[in-house]
Design a protein that fits this description.
By secondary structure, this protein is mostly beta strands. The protein has one domain. It is built from one helix and four strands. The strands form two sheets. Strands 1-2 form a two-stranded antiparallel ribbon. It has a two-stranded antiparallel sheet with strand order 3-4. β3 and β4 form a beta hairpin. It is elongated, with a radius of gyration of 16 Å.
Length: about 80
């Protein structure tokens, strides 16, 4: 649970062997007490480098607060990728 006021949410970034290429990120906003918030994190591809047989992608993420209705719909459409 977050306290009321300015809060920063931190994500560590990509992990080896995943399809998530943005690096570490922070999102700071003012949050009200006793309120649920839903965040949409969308990766944005910024570059690809190929070293022989190895491909490295870089990127960043756009973080937005979305409504409960949009979050519920998007969560229900989400599928696990192995």
């Amino acid at each position: 649970m977050l306290s009321q006021g300015n809060n920063t949410i931190v994500a560590k970034g990509s992990m080896l062997g995943t399809n998530w290429y943005p690096g570490p990120m922070e999102f700071t906003d003012v949050f009200e007490a006793n309120t649920e918030y839903y965040l949409r994190v969308t990766p944005q591809h910024t570059g690809t480098v190929i070293y022989g047989d190895i491909m490295a992608m870089s990127g960043e993420a756009v973080i937005l607060i979305v409504t409960e209705k949009d979050a519920s719909r998007e969560i229900s459409e989400t599928k696990r990728i192995y």
